[in-house]
Amino acid sequence: MHESNSRELSISVETSLPFGECLTRLRGILSHAGFRVLAEIPFHREFEEHLGLPWPRYTVMVVWSPFHAYQGVLNDIDAGFILPFHFVVAERAGSTLVAATNLSLLGHITGRIGLRLVGNNLSQQIQQILYQLHVRCDDRANLAAGHSKESA
After folding, report:
1. What is the pLDDT of residues 84-125, one digit of tens each?
2. What DSSP character marks residue 49?
3. Contacts of 78 (CB under 8 A, 6+ apart)
């Protein structure tokens, strides 16, 4: 698994986990961290059904935390434009890309201190979520190779 990357619009990581397993693990990590998945949109199915175009599996997850949304709206009524936010899980040849909205960038664009603080806090949590996905992927790889943490 590669380290997480911070691109302009997203924070991402590429994992060796299969697409379905990656989605399942990400849902669990998000739930444990206090986030709710409000919707999952399987773009690949929509492309196939409505456009007749085959596409590798690609799912957008709409995610939020009522607590963070409340904090955001208390600071700035425009917080609803950045909360909820999105995760993308995209199948690639031999890997799965997981990306999330770079809320730090969106907070900085507004120039509003309240949104900046909420965006920075959530971006740090997103980094932790991606790190946990990374650790679980490494644990899976070690188990598959017959290694345990004690022997590593």
Report:
1. 999 999 999 999 999 999 988 876 777 778 788 888 889 999
2. I
3. 110, 112, 115
In single-letter form, the type of residue at position 146 comes to G
Half-sphere exposure of 99 (CA within 13 A, CB side): 17
Rg value, the chain, Cα? 17
Look at residues 125, 140, 134, 141 and name the one whose alpha carbon lies nearest to residue 14. 134
- Residue environment code for 87-114, b if the CB has 16+ CB neighbours within 10 A, otherwise e: bbbbbeeebbbbbbbbbbbbbeebebeb
Residues 94, 95, 97: CA angle, nearest 5 degrees: 150
52-63, pLDDT tens digit by residue? 999 999 999 999
pTM metric for this prediction: 0.82
Rounded to whole angstroms, what are the CA distances from 140 to 5, 15, 81, 144?
22, 11, 37, 6
Q: Which two tokens stand for residue 49?
A: 């059904």
Cβ atoms of 40 and 58 closer than 8 Å:
no
Rounded-to-integer distance, Cα 102 and Cα 96, Å: 19
146: left (phi over 0), alpha (psi -120 to 50) or beta: left
